[in-house]
Specification:
With about 325 residues, this protein is α/β, with parallel strands linked by helices. The protein contains 13 helices and 10 strands.
Length: about 325
């Protein structure tokens, strides 16, 4: 018989209503002085300031996050090769991204604040093909590649990350079904002894469609039968679309729904910066919106770009008050 596939998400959700994810990594790195104006984005910090990444992970654990998502979103063999790194050096940096999160977790578990907490999880971030291109195409799709070509791109680094010691794989900001299916098939092919489950989350343009324009509910249904896909959902999408997307997902799968939207600002892929909210536009507090997503049926909840440890802490306080 094949070895059973571990599912840490299911284990956690048997014990508590929601699994609390972390917030943005790159946003926090920039707030602490890191220069991310680079095709490698946060993966640049793996090369230059790895201790800063460890500290951000630690601060999210202190804020209450149950999961740390690693600094490997924009880490790819192709991207590191353009920086002059060999295959072995690139693989070592991807492994280092997982190790930094694990080191932060180990440090946190020695602190008084960890008393009574379950040991948090580490999710190895698997960014989309568009992240390697560094042109914002993870928010557009239309790569011009078929599913087989996307599998060829993702396979080498997925194998490295799956063997690096994380409990989960976080396949995130996926703009189209072809790439989601490529990742789902690769996850189901991973060998016993490696990390073989995690989530796939799409970037979406509105409350019904992926960034490429496909029906989001249809995409969710297409992933429902894959054993390695332990949760399905949305990330780096405007928060006002999340409730409708959660409702669509719940109608098409019994798997847990994961959501970690951005803070609602608009990203300019040419200038590579987030445009601030318009004057007078004051969206509801992140924690208040997260309560709505939970009520709609989301089980894994956190934040993406422009969110931080304070948002995760506020989310935990809001839940504690609601449950108290």
């Amino acid at each position: 018989m094949p070895e059973p596939r571990a599912n840490p998400i299911a284990d956690w959700l048997q014990a508590q209503p929601q699994l609390v994810l972390d917030g943005a990594l790159a946003t926090e790195l920039e707030r602490r002085g890191a220069d991310l104006n680079d095709p490698l984005w946060s993966a640049r910090v793996l090369l230059e300031q790895p201790e800063l990444i460890r500290q951000v992970h630690l601060d999210y654990f202190r804020a209450g996050a149950d999961v740390a998502t690693t600094a490997s979103y924009q880490a790819s063999f192709e991207g590191f090769a353009r920086r002059g790194l060999s295959q072995a050096e690139a693989a070592a940096l991807m492994q280092r991204a997982v190790a930094l999160a694990a080191e932060a977790r180990d440090q946190f578990m020695q602190e008084p604040a960890a008393a009574g907490r379950r040991r948090p999880l580490v999710a190895a971030s698997v960014g989309p093909y568009g992240a390697m291109r560094a042109d914002g195409s993870e928010y557009r799709g239309h790569y011009g590649l078929d599913e087989a070509a996307l599998m060829d791109f993702h396979r080498p680094r997925l194998q490295v990350l799956a063997a690096a010691g994380a409990e989960l794989l976080a396949c995130e900001t996926i703009p189209c079904l072809a790439e989601a299916l490529a990742l789902a098939r690769l996850m189901d092919e991973l060998p016993a002894g490696s990390t073989r489950s995690g989530w796939i989350s799409f970037s979406c343009r509105d409350g019904a469609h992926t960034s490429q324009g496909e029906d989001f509910g249809d995409c969710v249904a297409a992933l429902d039968g894959f054993a390695g896909v332990a949760a399905i959902g949305i990330n780096c999408t405007a928060p006002q679309h999340i409730a409708a997307l959660v409702a669509s997902a719940r109608a098409r799968t019994s798997k847990p729904i994961v959501v970690y939207p951005n803070a609602g600002e608009v990203y300019d892929p040419v200038a590579k910066r987030w445009q601030p909210h318009a004057a007078g536009d004051h969206p509801p507090a992140f924690a208040d919106q997260a309560m709505q997503w939970a009520a709609a049926g989301a089980r894994l909840i956190g934040g993406c770009c422009r969110t931080g440890p304070a948002d995760i802490s506020a989310l935990l306080q809001r839940w504690s008050g609601a449950r108290g």
